[in-house]
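Incident review: delayed structure delivery

Summary: a single-chain prediction request sat in the queue longer than the usual turnaround. Root cause was a stuck worker, restarted by the on-call engineer. No data loss occurred. The affected request and its eventual output are reproduced below so the record is complete for anyone auditing the incident later.

Affected input:
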Amino acid sequence: MLFADALRARKSVRAFKSDPVPRAVVEAILDDASRAPSGTNIQPWKVHVVMGAARERLVAEVLAHRETKPEDDKAEFPHRGKRKEPYTSRMRTLGKAMYGLIGIPKGDEVAGWEQWGRNYKFFDAPVGLIFTIDKELGPMSYVDIGIFLQSLMLSATSRGLSTCAQGAWNNYWTATRRVLDVPDDEYIVCGVSLGYEDASVPVNGLVSEREPLGSFVTWHEG
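Output delivered after worker restart:
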């Protein structure tokens, strides 16, 4: 697959088949992603791969913890600032389209809570990846992790697999930390679902809109 094709084919998938992904394939994807650049080559990313029984245990414990509705660990670190236009409108446009395809009407809190919980099932993907980072590192290291994530997702796409990057795993982190034995000096940043897309599920027909160059590019010439 050409790079441009992989870049345009990649999308966030929210329903996966149960078909297993061989460990060798996961290792190859991670090895590809390890070529991602990072400031002064510090390579700040750390990845916990959960498959099989380990995945089931993590899913069960995080979902059980979530049902207690804890207020003290919804986010371990500030990962979202205040949003204004045009960012709010873009977010709402995506949410409306996604929940419309799922069939959840606006205001249905019960169905919304259940759907949000699917994040913690990795949307039924057989492989989950949890990303952590040393707490002492600065903001540029999060940029490095973003580059690593994009590299990983494009590698997966080129191999016929699908992904969904999930900031939701920054929530309910105490259960994830306990199950995966994540050291106290590391933040749990995000997760990624990895597997084969179930194209029969309507939500996977969602392709998020992209802004034209004129909305974010400023040219300086001459």
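Verification: The chain has a mean pLDDT of 95.
Action items: add queue-age alerting; document worker restart procedure.
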